[in-house]
Amino acid sequence: MDERRSVSVSKYLSRHLRHQPERIGLTLDPGGWAAIDTLIAAAAAHGFRFTREELDHVVAANDKQRFVIEDGRIRAGQGHSVEVDLGLPPATPPPHLYHGTVARNLDAIRAEGLKPMSRHDVHLSADRETATRVGARRGRPLVLTVDAGAMHRDGHVFHVSANGVWLTKAVPPRYLCLPDAR
């Protein structure tokens, strides 16, 4: 499978497993799962055809490991804007986590902290390199350091997805170390 096709299938899966399953007549179960055969048929019925082999390749080759396959079902590992319960247990975070963003967002972040926006949770990275890549999707990246240890001690709940993304409902400004945007 060439890279262009792989990206196309991956984006299609993200759109319909994380944000708009109803757009192709797909119903996710409460955990965000869909039967693979049902997904492939729904996609084909709406003009986007892909094979089980292509799906398996995209899931295995995705550098961010966005998707999980289990028992003939597939789901996105995190990042949903539709209501799902991923069933992730609470986890103790490392002392610091990181969030990639861009300068134009800093004023709002200073005032309100990190909010999930259209997602269910704020996404945090365990290392600066990953946060830098995430921020670079929107422009010149800035990396914020989150005092996750203090948040956890203060009662904030964290979860970690299968691909290592740390999730929490929000990060109040007092737990952030913000870079100078100059």
Write the layout of secondary structure elements.
Blueprint: H1 3-19, E1 34-35, H2 36-45, H3 52-61, E2 67-70, E3 73-76, E4 97-102, H4 106-112, E5 122-124, H5 128-136, E6 141-146, H6 148-153, E7 159-160, E8 166-168, E9 176-177
Antiparallel strand pairs: 1-3, 2-3, 4-6, 5-8, 6-9, 7-8
Helix pairs in contact: 1-3
GO molecular function: transferase activity
Enzyme class: transferase
InterPro entries: Ptrans_KptA/Tpt1 (IPR002745), RNA_2'-PTrans_C (IPR042081), RNA_2'-PTrans_KptA (IPR022928), RNA_2'-PTrans_N (IPR042080)
Q: The CATH topology of the largest domain is what? A: ADP-ribosylation fold
Share of helix, binned: 25-40%
Number of domains: 2
* Average pLDDT figure: 92
Radius of gyration: 18 Å
Number of helices: 6
Strand content: 15-25%
Distance between the termini: 42 Å
How would you spell out the order of helices and strands?
Answer: HEHHEEEHEHEHEEE
What is the annotated CATH architecture of the largest domain?
A: Alpha-Beta Barrel
Largest sheet: 3 strands, antiparallel
Unreliable segments (pLDDT under 50, ≥5 consecutive)? Answer: none
The SS-based structural class is alpha+beta
